[in-house]
Amino acid sequence: MAVAIPASVALTWFESVVDNLRHDMEDSATRILQGARRPSAIRQAAE
Questions:
Q1: Which is nearest to 12 in space by CA: 23, 24, 4, 1?
Q2: Quick one: pLDDT at residue 13?
Q3: What is the pTM for the complete model shown?
């Protein structure tokens, strides 16, 4: 138990950090892809 409990706490913390990073990366990718689509929409509106 002396090893299992701290290991479980460390794993939970590590998974939380990884989940937060994954979420941030997904948000960044979405913003990049949406930004890449905007100029064509602006060009179509101007035409």
A1: 4
A2: 98
A3: 0.64
Distance in angstroms (rounded) separating the CA atoms of residues 45 and 37: 13
Polymer length in residues for the chain: 47
Closest CA to 22 of 34, 32, 30: 30
Q: Cα 43 to chain center, whole Å?
A: 30
SS3 annotation, the chain = CCCHHHHHHHHHHHHHHHHHHHHHHHHHHHHHHHHHHHHHHHHHHHC
Where do we find the tokens 């101007």?
46
Report pLDDT for 43: 59
| Residue keyed to tokens 């929409």 | 41
